Write the structure tokens for this entry.
Amino acid sequence: MTSKRKNVKKRVKTQKKSRVRTGKKVHSKPKFNLMDHVLVPRHELVSDEEKARLAETYGPLDLFPKILASDPVASQIGAKPGDVIKVIRPGEEAPTYRLVVEG
Amino acid sequence: MTLASPVEKEEALPNVLNAVRFGLLSPSVIRRMGIIEIREPTAYDEGGLPIQGGVLDPRLGTTNPRVRCPTCGNLQSMCPGHFGRIELTKPVFHIGYVRRIKDILNSTCPSCGKVLLPEEERRAYIERARKFAEENPDKVVDDGLVREVKEAVKRYTKKEKTCPHCGARIEKISLEEVFKFIVKEPEPRRLWPTEVRDRLERIPNDDCLLMGFNPETSRPEWTVMTVLLVPPPTVRPSIFLETGERSEDDLTHMLGEVVKANQKLAYSIKTGAPNSVVESEWDLLQYWVAVLFRNSISGLPLATQRGTRRPLKSLFQRLEGKEGRLRKNLVGKRVDFSSRTVISPDPMLDIDEVGVPVEIAKTLTIPEYVNESNIERMKDLVLRGPDSHPGANYVRKSGGMPINLRVVQRRGLLKALAEELQIGDVVERHLMDGDNVIFNRQPSLHRLSIMGHRVKVLPGATFRLHPGVCVPYNADFDGDEMNLHAPQLTEARVEAAKLMNVKKNMLSPRTGGSIVGARQDFVTALYYLTRKDSLFTREEASIILASAGVTDLPEPAVLSPIEMWTGKQLFSELLPKDFNMVTTAKVCPDVPSCSSPESPVDGHVMIRNGQLLSGVIDDDVVGTLVKGKRTIIDLLIRDYGEEVAADFLNRALRMAAKFVTSIGVTVSLQELLLPREAEEEIEELYRVAAERVNRKAEEFRRARRRVTGQYRTKEEMIRATLEDQMLEFEMVRDLDALRSEINSVVARHLNPESNAIVMAKIGARGSLANLAQVVGTVGQQTVKRRVGFVLTSGKPKKGFKGRVLSYFRRGDMSLEAGGFVKSGYLKGLNPAEFVFHAMSSRESLIDKGRRTEDSGYFYRRVANALKDIYVEYDGTVRDSYGRVIQFRFGGDGYDPVKLFRGEPINFDKVIERHVRGVRKRVPKKRIRQVVAGYGLPERLAEMLIEARASEKEAREVCEEVKRGFEAAKVDVLTPIGIISAQSIAEPTTQMVLRTFHAPGVLTMDVTHGVERFKELVFYASTSTPTMEIRLRGEWARDREKVEEAMRRIKEVLVRDLLSEFQIDSEGFRLVMRVDPEKMRESGVEMDELASVVKAASKGIKGRVSVEGDLILVDMPDIAEREKPYQTLRSWSMRIVSKQVRGIKGIKGINAIRQETSDGGYEYYLRTRGSNLREVLRLEFVDPTRTLTNDCREITEILGIEAGRECLLRELLKVLREQGLEVDRRYVTLVVDAMTYAGKILPIALQASGVPSGFFAVMKSPLSKMAFEWVYHVALNTAMRGERNPINGPLDALIMGQTPPVGTGRVRLSWDWEKTERLLEAIKVGRSE
């Protein structure tokens, strides 16, 4: 845990440095929204009613595929452990669900 | 009526096992289990009888079939064996746990046994551990927590020297010579097992959990043994040699040694021997006990057999490896009723038949119940006895022993027995025509390696098999052998007939296309038969049709002067009368040229109402595993069912086999001779190419001469090798071009009507490239993926210098000397060419061997990982723990085998049924909307518009087509995991290691093929990361901007700007000479460079000065250091490796121009090295389309779903590059399984040494053991007291139960009461 935090710190540091080193002022530009990336499918938080419905059709939610609460996309949409995220992959009719877990 | 048992031994377990609990045995349990104490060091007395209390005490169970066991009173077959015990004089360690014991001793207090953490922290950890244990009753121990505690204790003990609970002094304990615990302070002291055990006993149950032990099943002190359990002789039987001597099992030997050492130690203690003697004897006892468990511990001498010095096999070695108990006996089972012999072809059989030699048919039997309708037949069979073919070998009556007919026959009582036969008896009759058996060829790489066949008993000694099923089995007839199994139970026989039969398996699950069909000569025959110029007289036509079983001639196509039939007509006789199809044949050079029946090569295949109107029949029309196209067989299966398709195939192939022998297809020498001018043309091409290559090599050599022989820096050497490789790639490109030019010359000059060319064109056998090698030029030979071996750098390193053969001069750069074989096979190779060719051939042979090994392991790993994944009743794909791997298989739930490349139902037929065709046109948009509304393919909409369907009709059609799609969903309980594993692993056998494609600057060092597959699946890593950077707006089009982007992205290090640098070890300074040209190129100013150097040398207080183009760094401080020269060097390297500009990790970059779909173009950048996070930040980069091939990086930055997509794309890319067709749904399953846990789990037991791979997270202990690392898994599992539920197929198999997948998961249940009521009702009905 702590070593991870350290890594993050280190990373932040190097980022700052590399910015300085490009020798040019970085334009302030709108932050890139990772949800727009071609590899990232649509993620949506599932309402409580739907969660209940899912549990009814598919059984216990803790058997669902997982997504870590620290996952960049999960944290961006504000998911907390215990939530379910609906993932709509392009080209797939039926959505997939992932249960948010700690980590 | 009483029935005999259908099989001889009903091998059903009395109980069903739900779970297995692992744990350690406590001394009291051992004493209860091991009733007999073993104390005698010798096994036998003088008379040669086992001694009471010896390691072979008769009370341990009988191994003699005629002696009753004194303990349980059973004969050998029923006596399970009884454990004994050795009371150890002094306790010893269980050798598998010594490291763990060390960790515990160092983490707990020597006096109070609590974990060495402040009470508060300890409580918190215990709380978490308890919570985990409560939530995971099967697993109990939280690995992550145990690791955390270990780290925390380490940190604590670094600072504190006393126990936070009782204040006792903490000792640091180390482990030496495998099992010797030493306390270093204050003075070295040995910690003997007695003391260790005392300390372990003091550990409270709560703290055990933090140490990784489940106190309920496994107390830590039980790892120090005071009693040793002795396995019964049933597991270590004595062997009697021919000489009458006894030979003992290795375990018996070792147990004997343990007893001996134990007695000796007891004696020494009793007699008060000096301490040193007692201690060394104690260690000896420890040694023998350790070796008994595992005789391959590094640091301990191997225990060997006296005399032969063969290492003894210990308990754990019995379990481990391919030949170990788990893989050999528990997961792999041996069977009866099987046979094996050589296979040979017989095209006159049906494709689902197998010819069985009479000899085998008389040995394999099938139990048949005698009933009212077969009693006479059964009597006949019994009467014929065991020796004449349709006979019988045994008869079983209810309750009785099986009656051996051979014995009965000898006594002349067959007739009497036959007469006695009554309903309910079982006759074990010979295999007969029509019986359903299972046929298999190893390696069983996919489902189709084991299929059901119908028996055809034939004379001869080989299994006969239709050549059409060679492809699924991957069989040929050069001596291949196959196995045949005769299923005994009715259920099994029904499954063999209804599920496993060849007819039900004509489609490859991997691609969804047909895998049985015509090949080789059958294709040739059908091609010649259906050519435009094939005309047959009445007699010929009759013979051809008769061979296919057709007895009616159609109307002749030509009436006068004589009646003639076209081959197309004859072929059409085999097709259903309403069959329609349009496709292109393989002969067709490109699709547009074959769009009409007028195509010059007759490549437009059109079948209308069962008549082949145009086009020839060749590999693409009736072949096997045709890529991306539906063949006749596919369509017949879809529209008419397997029976019709199989019948068509049987008849077509039989017809082809007869026809090809009647016309005779051969290759003559004459048709392979090239005319004079062709040879001259080739000669000229060769001359030009040789000149070009030589010129390049010469230029290169001249350029290279400037560089001195020795490389001063690593960079220089790397650059030089890179240049070498570039030259080589260029040469390959030139030579490849030469070869394709020669190919075209050959193709132009050979007679296109010659059989060899025809066969190549129709896909029957051979290729134009093959032919060009025969008549033209064999081409460049390569070794180790490099051309010629005499290149500039003088490779290979071993052997001659500057040349490959002493036949050539040193430094000869000509093509011949570089391994180019100019001659063709027809002309023959000269000696030098022959050697080159042999080298290359040998390499490819070795390659092949390595590849099969690699892909075999790949298969094992992936299959073990996915074995328990199946389709649940709710349509989800789950593993045996019920985890949802996919909500719908492959995202849509379709079974590739039922999908027929996107059209599971014949659209034409459906439209025909529903659409009348209206006068008034319905708007096209409307129809398209309707079709899209149903989620059906656009092609259907176009077809409906064409058919002028009304909206209502369109809806009807859509309804029916939709139902067709619904029916194409995967069957419930399909073991889809295994099928997926097979579908991706089977093609790896076909992957080629070398892929010489587009030798660009960067693509060449990207990993491909099996290697890439392996790293993705086994490690989820990328050894050669590369990015695809997309640019924004103007940046993507303006060449200058692109250049600037590249400059800003590529990593520039200090050393990249230097022409040279020197480390002055006397003055302790670093001298760097700046290269002005490089500075200009990268746009770095001297000041900037100097400041970077300054920053880099800050840590050593270096003084930086600039003198002209020199940068000097003085580091006087270093002189004071311990190792001054080393330090100087490492600091210097650190300085020159400092980054000046660009993005870290991007080692190379180039721009690629790409046409965009809207007709424009854009540049994108490809890099060597990857740093997604930084690149996405750049303002000129289009972050939404920028990619890397490192899926872990993607997961970290873009999340698990993006990581999944990356993994999927990368796997599909490999398959695409290798030209292997695999349905993407299977790949998605692998990817979804790997990303189930929210991070990418590599398919491995452990990742970086810690158990955290796919297996560790997702699998039961038993299935882990069945995979790898039995020893470690078993020890860990026992320690944690894990519970192993028997859910998955592997667990079930190990426990001897039916694997719960597919038909093994369903039971027939029969409502007897209801049946009786029904029967009653029928009776009543009848009487009324």
